[in-house]
Amino acid sequence: MKNLLSITLMALFSAGAMAQECSLDMEKSAPSTRYVANDNGTFSDELTGLTWMRCQLGKTWDTKTLACSGPAETYHWQSALSMVESINDQSGSHALHKFGGEKEWRMPNIKELVSLKEVACHSPAISHKVFGDTFNVEAGNLASFIWSSTPASDGQSVMTFDSINGEVYQYNAAQYKFSVLLVAE
């Protein structure tokens, strides 16, 4: 009996990423109809006018499957800012330079990240239509947190968006490594 319980618990906890769950009783706060999914690895948000990359940095847009593949990279905040500078460098040597036809990519501010939040859903709390399985990660995986460009009031922390629950947290910019999702005007 003890072995059966142990095996059952191991299966439950090693099941991998969970699928998105949405409440049918709640009105969608970020309905899929406001997004235009582009085949070039971006999507347009008709409400905000912003264009977003569909993959976190480190993942690759697959033009055949129209999905992100590979693992997301995590960065300390300053390294993330340097990566964005590298992407936008006029030499054009970075693979993501002018990705999706956009001239310049940047880290979003926290309000822009929160605009992606779907209150009726969790795991992840963002549109499955737009991101697919990109943010289907296990709780505790730091790639589920997304750095913003918004500093916190303590001068050492930066605001982050938790894609699993759609919550905002502040973390020390030098101590933590989180994922990066880029946006363009």
Mean of the pLDDT scores? Answer: 87
Count of structural domains: 1
CA(first)-CA(last) distance: 59 Å
Helix content: 10-25%
| Count of discrete alpha- or pi-helical segments spanning 4 or more residues | 4
Which sequence of strands runs across the widest sheet? 2-3-4-11
Q: Could you give the order of the helices and strands? A: HEEEEEEHHEHEEEE
Q: Give the number of DSSP strands.
A: 11
Outline the low-pLDDT stretches. 1-17
> In this structure, how is the largest beta sheet organized?
4 strands, antiparallel
List the SSEs and their pairings:
Elements: H1 2-13, E1 21-22, E2 35-37, E3 42-45, E4 51-53, E5 60-62, E6 67-69, H2 77-88, H3 110-114, E7 121-122, H4 128-131, E8 145-151, E9 157-162, E10 167-172, E11 183-184
Task: Summarize the structure in short.
By secondary structure, the chain is α+β, with helices and mostly antiparallel strands. Helices cover 18% and strands 22% of the residues. The chain has one domain (18-184).
